[in-house]
Amino acid sequence: MDKIHSLTGMLDHYDDGDIENISVKIFETEKRIKKVFTNYKYSEIRTPALEDTNLFVRSAGDASDIVNKEIYSFNDRNEKNIALRPEGTASAIRAIIEKKLDQTNHKLWYLGPMWRYERPQKGRYRQFYQAGVEILGYEEGAPEYEIISMVCSIIEEFKLKNCSIKINHLGDKESKKLFCDALVEYLEPFKDSLDEKDLTRLTKNPLRVLDSKNKETQSILKKAPSIREFIKPSALSLLENIQNEYKDICNIEIDYTLVRGLDYYSGFVFEAISSELGAQDSFLGGGRYDHLSLKLGGKNLPSIGMAIGVERFASLIKDITTSNKVVSFITLTSNLESKPYKIAHQLRSLNSNIILDLQLSDGSLKSKLRKANKNNSEYAIIIGEEELRDGTAVIKFLNDELKDQETVSIEELFSFYTSL
Ligand code: HAM
């Protein structure tokens, strides 16, 4: 019978214990990013994968690529048009409005799959994971510092190299409009040189022309007016202050050409990029979206947020060894011999900081030790027929050049394990 394959651009991830494997890095990334979120005292929000398609049309905007060509939408059995969420912000705001919590402040985090019908390539998938935060109900100021602090903490936590944070300010409604008018006026004489996509952007959301991938457009834009000339002094000093406060921790640049791919942004925006990622170099993006709640039928709720692309982020991590020690528990007795399993249970309850990998498979000592090395075990505890008979265990020191192994009583094993 024909085999059934996974869909294009949708990956399976499996933790095989090999720390070089991208899936293992993804799971570790998720675990540690969640820890940063909770250490900053954010609360989890979990929304459905499927939503009314209008939610994304109204929030991301009908000029955005996400809505124009990337959305996974279809009619359900009741002829209602629904979509797999392409991002998490709109759903979070929808949920807060629906729960009538849109008059108070919130600090939220989420982690889950998103879907965009893109042309798959390295770092670009049709199903991918985002870990994001949304800070709701606070005006410009403190949340901008908090969110950049969090981005720096995450970069530090994973010791990422070769990355930088780009920041910009899209201005308030008035300055954004003045800038867009100036941009349209500047581009008017070049209209014949713009491709169809940029011409559409010019009429629907002129700011998005700045994000054009077309080389000719980019060279025309070199002499275009800069948003720097239109934003208020308070916006300029916000950018400079953020850069000054965090530049000793992370590489931060002000980039006046940075615009984001979704229409809901207003004010402060940012992206983190890495030179190690190739064409899809942005592993995190976000910004302020003060008008989204009103647009979705809620109260005035000034907000800011960001999302990390988990696959891209994980591919940047070099070393995922954690502070928790790993120990392998190897039995060489018959599979049905129950005693060793009880010893493993006792060890686990003696020291919960240790990750104890009880190897369930049959196999030679050699293959089991190979597995122990692969999963980064510092020690292997080995119990065979002889140890079982004598009430002992062998502790093998896998990372110690001077010490090979030691036979100890079960009591000694317990004290050794407790002291790790
Ligand atoms: P975004 O820039 O569209 O922003 O996506 C955030 C991150 O998701 C990107 O920087 C990238 O790392 C990752 N990403 C996007 N598309 C793909 C893909 N096809 N494959 C793999 N990774 C991808 C947002 O989604 C906003 N909701 C962020 C936000 C939250 N703004 C305010 N709050």
Describe the structure in your own words.
- The radius of gyration is 27 Å and the shape is elongated.
- The protein is an alpha+beta fold and 420 residues long.
- The model has no long low-confidence stretch (mean pLDDT 94).
- The structure holds histidyl-adenosine monophosphate.
- Histidyl-adenosine monophosphate binds next to strand 6, strand 10, strand 11 and helix 11.
Brief summary:
By secondary structure, the chain is of the alpha+beta class. 36% of the residues lie in helices and 21% in strands. It contains 15 helices and 16 strands.
Largest sheet: 8 strands, mixed
Percent of residues in beta strands: 15-25%
Number of helices: 15
Helical/strand content category: alpha+beta
Could you say which overall geometry the principal axes of the C-alpha atoms support? Answer: elongated
First-last Cα distance: 52 Å
Spans of at least 5 consecutive residues with low confidence = none
Rg value: 27 Å
Widest sheet: strand ordering: 1-5-6-11-10-9-7-8
Bound ligands, each once: histidyl-adenosine monophosphate
Number of strands: 16
Mean pLDDT: 94
What level of helicity do the residues show? 25-40%
Descriptive terms for the model:
binds histidyl-adenosine monophosphate, five-stranded mixed beta sheet, eight-stranded mixed beta sheet, 36% helix, alpha+beta, elongated, 420 residues
Secondary-structure blueprint of this entry?
Elements: H1 22-39, E1 43-44, E2 50-52, H2 53-60, H3 65-70, E3 72-75, E4 81-84, H4 89-98, E5 106-115, E6 127-136, H5 142-157, E7 163-169, H6 173-187, H7 196-204, H8 215-221, H9 233-246, E8 252-254, E9 268-274, E10 282-288, H10 292-295, E11 303-309, H11 310-314, E12 326-331, H12 339-350, E13 355-358, H13 365-374, E14 379-383, H14 385-390, E15 392-397, E16 405-409, H15 410-419
Parallel strand pairs: 1-5, 7-8, 12-13, 12-14
Antiparallel strand pairs: 2-4, 3-4, 5-6, 6-11, 7-9, 9-10, 10-11, 14-15, 15-16
Helix pairs in contact: 1-5, 12-15
